[in-house]
Amino acid sequence: MSRASTAAETSVPAAGVPAAPPMPEDVQALLRRLRLPHVRRHAPQVVATAKAQRWEPVEVLRALLAEEVAGRERSALATRRSAAGFPTGKTFAAWQAEASSVPAPTQQALRTLEWVRRRENLVVCGPSGTGKTFLLEALGQQAVEEGLRVAWFTLEDLGVLLRRHRADDTVTKAIARVLRADLVVVDDIGLLPVAADAAEGLYRLVDAAYERRSVAISSNLHPAAFDELMPKTLATATVDRLLHHAHLCQTTGKSVRLSQALAGDGVVPLGGPR
Questions:
Q1: Residue range(s) of every CATH 3.40.50.300 domain in the chain
Q2: Domain 86-261 has CATH 3.30.450.40
Q3: pLDDT digits (tens, 9 = 90+) for 83-120
């Protein structure tokens, strides 16, 4: 690793490096005009370090550019994560693969995200508490970290979207904006009665995404039973498009949440450590 690379990883002054003086105003003005905020932030320390350690000019340039790239990547990641609208922030860091009823090879294949890049769909269905939402959110978080765009919805969200844009006849444009994401997740289908607007919103989303974007859904019901939630004709058309290029994972077992609650693991004991 070069000295420039080392400096690019930290803004803490190295031993023996004098405190960094501020950059001249004209240089700061140029960096603002060029929209290089991360270079502007780190330039004083990099320049001070370079002077103390007698870097070659190219090392200074390399360190400053590395800071700008790293800063932009951090900002882009934060923007994608915020835009996704994840419900809890769960990632694979907290995922217990061995506790899931989804076969380990299937989990590993899903985590490659190749199915997203092939514009294939994912349906995870099974009883409440068996890790469906956790799996989809962890996959979505990984997709965001790999530079993909994700949008997270519930059926109720789709119904609200439809009602908001129906008044001025912009539903098609609204769905098109949603599909700027590489992966669209619709969570917890089947928990609540499906309103007509939500059912139509799901159909419109799946139809518009067909062979163009990946849609992932979680549901207490197998898609074959969606006609219990929405009009049969609409359910048939939705499921036909959804499952044509889809991976179907069925979870089984008891609710993890209920098991933890019964074992007393869902809360910190009263009077215990704070």
A1: 86-261
A2: no
A3: 999 999 999 999 999 989 999 999 999 999 999 999 99
